[in-house]
Amino acid sequence: MSRPKSEPKVQMNSVAKSAVxxxxxxxxxDGVVDADPAISRxxxxxxxxxxxxxxxxxxxxxxxxxxxxxxxxxxxxxxxxTRADLVAFIAWRVEAGARPRSTAxxxxxxxxxxxxxxxxxxxxxxxxxxxxMPKIGRSLPKSLTEDEVESLLAAPTVTDPLGHRDRTMLxxxxxxxxRVSELVNLKHTQVNTNQGVIRIVGKGDRERLIPLGxxxxxxxxxxxxxxxxxxxxxxxxxxLFPTRRxxxxxxxxxxxxxxxxxxxxxxxxxxxxxxxxxxxxxHLLNRGADLRVVQMLLGHSDLSTTQIYTHVARERMKELHxxxxxxx
Length: 328
What we know:
CATH class of the largest domain: Mainly Alpha
Strand content: under 5%
CATH superfamily of the largest domain: Intergrase catalytic core
Distance between the termini: 27 Å
Number of helices: 13
CATH architecture of the largest domain: Orthogonal Bundle
Shape: elongated
Largest sheet: 3 strands, antiparallel
Structural class: mainly alpha
CATH topology of the largest domain: hpI Integrase, Chain A
Helix content: 40-55%
């Protein structure tokens, strides 16, 4: 391994296509403006009060839109929703194939919405109060071995400007543990290659400084000096990793790029857009990093979210032990 042991080079769904910024005049997918002003008030309130991510706001909007459309078909109004209505909606969704995790997320959205209505005095009862959350197992994030990461990083053809861009993006992702959305939205002003850090404003407007590591600094410097200019030609953009058209890359486009390089690298595992983020966290913990440091680097507000990576690291250690001691 070429990585220094003290520091591994480590770190859409349909609802994201909905409009995400709160507005009383926000059009839905079909061009229809939100019919119920209570939903617009709720989205405005949570956006102003909590500074939630656009993806979270989009999920709230999608969940509430699904509920109101179901209610409209039955000539019911969302502000008059009863517990029985919600139970019937959930049952209808489950019959249509909804999974427990999806149902739990929707119910969580409804709880927050109706508690908001309760606080502002629009309703007198919370219809979600007596509905239990479906039980869901917490799945372990998929991770890669360090050799698999090396193969993935080596897959792009770096003599091509776009290939050099892709390699640089993969290097930065593994060196920092960024979320894919944070990576594609990265701008020049957020990167300081002299100090070797990236400044990220993540979920809930929480800012964090993340060390880059020598390898990703080198790839970034080379990319900015040459291939980035070749991609842009005469166009201008603040985004660090532009597309051939000079636009910001989407999360979905980068996800397709990762899958393409994974096939080229011969990585057989089922990947997710956050695979390299998971690898960053797992490999740091494998090498003895403090859990709270990893929490800070990942931008988790709750340590329990980060703790799941200790289970991934432990499972990996068991696999390695079994390989080297097949008889136990």
